Structure formats: C-alpha cells, structure tokens
C-alpha cells in the first residue's frame, strides 16, 4: 500500500522532491528553454509507479528521469502507467521511450490524442500552407510571410518532436477516477492551454493535513508565477470558431472550486491557496481583455493588435517564432471579446479588422 512505501528522502538528490504520501517530483530539464524544467511526478500505486507527464525528448532529460527514478529505488522498467496532462513535447516527449522500456500504458484526453495523431500524420507542406494562410488572414506583413514561403519552396520543412510523439493507449475520461490500485486520482478536464488538457485531482487527504481537498497535479493549467500561453487551437481541418480563452477561464474557475490543499504544477514549484491564484489569473485576463477592447477604438487586424499589446519586451525585439505565438494569443483574446459581444469584425475588411462595440 502507498502508505507503507519506504521513506528514502534522506538520500534524495536535489532534482528529486518527496511530497509525502507516495508522491515524488523529478525536475527533468528542457534544453534551451527559459522554463528550465518539467516537474515529472511519480505516484506510487499498488501495481507499481505511475508517472504524471514524462518530459522533453532529449538524452539529457531521459538520463535525469532515469536517475531520479533510481534515487527512489525504481527502474524505468517498473513504471506501470503514464498519465499525460497535455500533448506538448515538454510533457509527452519521453512517453514513447518510457513505454518501450517498461510496457506501461499511456493515457491522455481524447482531444489531445487527436492532436497527436493529426501531427504525426500531417504532411509538412500542409502545415506550412496552413500557417502562412492563417498569418496572412491575421494581417501579417509580407516580410513575415516570405521566410515561411521560402522554407516551403526549398523543401526545408519542419522537424518538430511532435512528429514522432507516442500515440496513447488509453483515454482519460473527464470526471472519472483513473483505475489506479490503492489511489484516488480523478481527471478534471481543463481545456484552454490545449483542447484536451487535464488536471489530476489526488483526492486522498494531504499527507501533512494541510487544509483543503487533496492535491492537484495541474500541468500547465495553473502555475504559481506565470500564466500559460492561450492561443487558438490549431486545427487545419476545422472551421469551428472555438474560444480557447473562454474555455481556459471556465476551467480556472472549476479548479478554484476544488480548493485543493496543495497544487503540484508541471513547472516552477508546488504551492498552496489555489483559489487565490485562480482569482489573480482571472483578474489578469479581465484587465488584459479590457485593455485590448480599448485599443480596438480603431479597427485593427490581429497582427496590428499583437504589435500594440504589452509583452515582456518591445515588439521589434520579439523573435520570429514568438511573434507567431503572440498573434495567436491576440486572436484568442479577440475571439473572446467577440463571443462576449464587446468586439466585432468590420464587414468587408480584408484582412479582417476588428473594432470595439
Ligand atoms: Zn503546455
Ligand atoms: Zn509545459
């Protein structure tokens, strides 16, 4: 039983944290990324350890994961299952390698599995056409589109880790307990950062009896010091006007109502008082929406809006790839303002501009 798990914390290396009650965190590095690391969590179950996320697909990350498990007296071959919060490569990157080494199952929400399957089978040219079409429609200048077109024409097509991401074996069903021997881990669907993001609520009482309801593995949904990227869901085959920011805000409220005693996020560090952090993030997005609504006193394309939004540095200094992410974020905010009836597209504009209502 988990409660009887041996206490090994006296010998743990610095990248491993014992959270008590058969839960550990391993800091798995993300190469060349300001986030630094993914916190991979290990959950002891009656049938062997289960991982929540696995980390970036890179030899150094793999070695850190293996060494971290080793410090807990575990081999990768012992891993019984892998639960993935969302499909991003810093969370799902090593899942395939873990499955190969252990025979573990991999579980993911169906909406993110769909993204994995689509990305694996996508002809790279389709992606380039989709991206340049999307950016042109958002009002990107020719100078920004030219490199994309040139790359496609030269056959320099992308090689992203997502192209060989592992296809999950199991589906995580929202609201259901995962079938883990001796543990109560419930899936909470929290779309927004990705369409199939889930948080996982460990409903057992907090091992140090902190006030609140159990512990929450929050993935990228709820982080102590940063707010996750919310862009439009990228689906070349869908015409549907999804509202990821609306989804995200709803998902935040859902998590706040759970009142977990402690949050174990996938980046940064564990923290308490989830409802306060939720309120902070809701207020941040409300301020941002209002700020954008004010900018829309003059009609703007999503690109022009992104240029005027506040980022962590001036627009001129934002690198190429990050500008694409910034525009996607501007589009998600515009979509929300339109859904709220606070903005509308200007009829006949091409590329389409938006104005405040
Ligand atoms: Zn992510
Ligand atoms: Zn992440």
Automatic annotation (TrEMBL):
Superkingdom in the source lineage: Bacteria
One Pfam match: Lactamase_B
Domain Metallo-beta-lactamase: 37-267
InterPro entries: Metallo-B-lactamas, RibonucZ/Hydroxyglut_hydro, Sec-metab_biosynth-thioest, WH-like_DNA-bd_sf
Matches recorded under SMART domains: Lactamase_B (SM00849)
Region (Disordered): 1-20
UniProt name for this protein: MBL fold metallo-hydrolase
Species this protein is from: Streptomyces goshikiensis
């Amino acid at each position: 039983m988990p409660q009887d798990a041996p206490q090994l914390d006296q010998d743990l290396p610095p990248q491993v944290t014992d959270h008590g009650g058969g839960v550990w965190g391993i800091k798995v590095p993300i190469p060349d990324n300001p986030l630094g690391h993914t916190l991979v969590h290990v959950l002891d179950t009656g049938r062997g350890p289960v991982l929540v996320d696995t980390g970036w697909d890179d030899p150094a990350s793999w070695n850190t994961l293996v060494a971290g498990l080793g410090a807990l007296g575990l081999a990768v071959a012992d891993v019984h299952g892998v639960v993935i919060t969302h499909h991003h490569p810093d969370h799902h990157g090593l899942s395939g390698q873990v499955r190969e080494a252990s025979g573990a199952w991999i579980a993911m929400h169906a909406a993110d599995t769909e993204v994995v399957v689509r990305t694996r089978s996508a002809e790279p040219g389709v992606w380039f056409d989709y991206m340049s079409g999307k950016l042109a429609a958002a009002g990107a200048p020719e100078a920004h589109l030219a490199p994309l077109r040139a790359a496609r024409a030269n056959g320099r097509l992308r090689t992203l880790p997502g192209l060989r991401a592992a296809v999950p074996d199991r589906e995580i069903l929202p609201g259901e307990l995962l079938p883990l021997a001796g543990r109560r881990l419930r899936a909470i669907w929290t779309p927004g950062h990705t369409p199939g993001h889930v948080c996982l609520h460990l409903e057992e009482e907090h091992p140090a009896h902190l006030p609140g309801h159990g512990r929450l593995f929050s993935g990228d949904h709820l982080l102590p010091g940063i707010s996750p990227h919310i862009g439009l869901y990228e689906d070349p085959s869908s015409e549907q006007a999804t509202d990821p920011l609306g989804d995200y805000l709803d998902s935040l409220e859902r998590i706040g109502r759970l009142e977990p005693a402690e949050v174990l996020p996938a980046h940064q560090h564990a923290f308490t008082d989830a409802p306060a952090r939720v309120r902070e993030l809701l207020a941040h997005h409300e301020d941002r929406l209002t700020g954008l609504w004010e900018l829309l006193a003059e009609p703007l394309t999503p690109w022009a809006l992104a240029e005027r939004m506040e980022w962590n540095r001036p627009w001129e200094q934002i690198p190429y790839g990050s500008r694409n992410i910034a525009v996607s974020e501007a589009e998600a905010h515009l979509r929300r303002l339109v859904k709220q009836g606070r903005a509308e597209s200007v009829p006949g504009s091409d590329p389409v501009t938006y104005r405040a209502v």
